[in-house]
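HUMAN: Please help interpret these tokens:
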Amino acid sequence: MIMRKLVLALAGGAVLMAAPTKVGFVYLTPVGDTGWTYEHDQGRKEMEAAFKGQVVTQVVDNVPENADAERVIRQLAKDGCKVIFTTSFGYMNQTLKVAASFPDVDFLHCTGYKTARNAGIYNARFYEARYLCGVVAGKMTRTHMAGFVGAFPIPEAMQAINAFTLRMRNVDPKAEVRVIWVNSWFDPGKEREAAMALMVQGADMITHHTDSPAVVQAVEEKHKERNVWSLSEYSDMSKYGPNSQLTGDVHVWGKYYTRAVKEAMAGRWPAPPNVWGGMKDGMIKLAPLNKAVPAEVKALVGRLEKDIISGKLHPFAGPVLAQDGTLKVAAGKFMTDEDMGSMNYFVKGVNSNLPKE
């Protein structure tokens, strides 16, 4: 789609450097210093640096998932961006609408499922790291209860909750997970309130699927009083929970963004890309394990991580039972990407109800 030459020949043998390719990014929340948007921005910076002046980026943050998103995406295309990354699930339809109006621009939408001729999708298999977080939670819980602060019950959140629950119960069959939805990706006040409520209910392992460090901060505040621990999401948030964060899942976007822009600049889009990368692709990793995690638990996590990377272990290997006892994956099988992409149920062990539509 994008064919760029580094130099343009002029009469008399002079050369003129071509203008750098403009790449746009749309973020849901302020960049901050941890979380979903922060990690995307780290990836953007790594990508821009890798091109050494051949690429410049344009960023718009704090863009709500409504008509404003379409306006922002459209303006980036009008401004001359040749590749545009839209980094939140709720930007999907707006991305496709703008893509139809700008056939010579490449659009890539994060976490969605709809594509077009010039609009692809990308995501990370963060459920792999959430599965490993479940190992730590199951081995270290005293109350046999974990709390999960969720944003919205979309498939990516269900994958995170269910993978975490499956492995926590694998190492602690008495374990249960309780979920509180805050109906926002970024609302530190609500996130903190939900974390506090889960601790009052008896959860001593608290994690989240929201963008701010509010959950980790709340747990750090109550760590000594209640002997509670946190497991962060999207970023290593240990700066906010130096004593209480056990580990967390970390998204790594730099290599992906570099590869995607390189391919777009070279015109190698025979079809819209659909990328879902995991630990083996370097798109997901675990935050460092707290020194409080026993050596044998660290060793177990290390072995399981290697098995996930090699393909020997799948977090949604059967048998997988839904909350109501329905068999979702039979023994000896594992869940397909298609089934994970439409996940709309809790697994057995989650002691909460999904919101009614």
